[in-house]
Design a protein that fits this description.
The chain has 11 helices and 5 strands. It is an alpha+beta fold. A 5-stranded antiparallel sheet has the order 1-2-3-5-4. β1 (about 5-10) and β2 form a beta hairpin. It is elongated.
């Protein structure tokens, strides 16, 4: 179970991805209220009748195996001075899935993010607001990372379409291996110039301290446009359009698509209240 962390008001809060859902450490959140005995904070929260009502409704909506009879028993007792409930007892007797208890040095009580938000609000309204803001920021970053990976893979797939077009239309039988390699590299660099404004060699000279190549440092928008350019160039090659004409067409396409993507991204982020997008540099017009 891979664990990630976020920092809220100076407190490190762990969270895990389980069955496509985020489970956040209530133990860590509770430290905002009681650093020495966070488990006591969780138990006090579970004694609350409103908490039991909330957990029961959540399980009813998300857990087909939830035991309503056992839940009713807890609901009737909640709020009484004699009522004590631990996360483990709640899970075992109701078959709940919203809470998870992990053992070991780095264990504790984890809860589905819906429940963790409710707990954070009970601990401190101020803490909850900071917690939500930081969690949203992290999820936005994770989403961008996933999108980047997806677009990188798409570019690789489209590059196969691109190289097949080169092989079928630009590679002649009497070329040596060195000459064939040059043809592929030359076409790849043409795309680099059309999109990034520089060749792979020029980028490497300017960024000698960086590992990888310029495409490894491209934005999500640039990678998406690159995938489109590879497909477009394959079509232009099959139409026997000379390279000096193709690079102009590809550059115009790159600039237009990047402008459209950036405008759409900025509009979407404003609507969702996400952090401002980074600057996606458009390539300069050629010629």
């Amino acid at each position: 179970m891979a664990t990630s962390k976020m920092s809220v008001k100076g407190i490190d809060i762990r969270y895990n991805r389980i069955n496509q859902n985020d489970y956040i450490s209530l133990t860590d959140i509770a430290k905002f209220k009681n650093t020495e005995n966070p488990n006591d904070v969780i138990k006090n929260w579970l004694r609350n009748r409103m908490t039991i009502e909330f957990l029961g409704i959540w399980e009813g909506l998300n857990n087909p195996d939830f035991k309503p009879v056992e839940f009713d028993g807890f609901r009737k007792e909640a709020g009484l001075n004699s009522f004590v409930l631990s996360p483990t007892r709640w899970i075992e007797q109701t078959n709940a899935i919203g809470l998870i208890v992990a053992s070991g040095k780095y264990g504790g009580t984890f809860a589905h993010n819906d429940i963790a938000m409710e707990f954070a609000n009970w601990v401190s309204v101020e803490f909850r607001l900071y917690f939500i803001k930081e969690f949203q920021r992290l999820k936005a970053e994770e989403q961008k990372a996933l999108e980047w990976t997806a677009k990188r893979e798409l570019a690789k797939i489209n590059y196969r379409i691109h190289t097949d077009a080169i092989k079928e239309n630009l590679i002649v039988p009497d070329l040596s291996k060195k000459q064939i390699s040059y043809v592929y590299a030359n076409e790849a660099d043409m795309l680099n110039v059309a999109l990034f404004g520089k060749t792979a060699g020029e980028w490497k000279t300017m960024n000698a301290d960086l590992k990888g190549n310029m495409r490894d440092y491209a934005s999500v928008e640039q990678l998406l446009v690159l995938a489109n350019l590879e497909s477009y160039n394959a079509i232009l090659i099959e139409q026997n359009i000379p390279q000096e004409e193709r690079i102009v067409l590809l550059n115009k396409t790159a600039r237009k698509q990047l402008e459209t993507l950036l405008a759409t991204m900025i509009k979407t982020e404003k609507l969702l209240g996400l952090p401002k997008a980074g600057d996606t540099r458009n390539p300069e017009p050629l010629g």
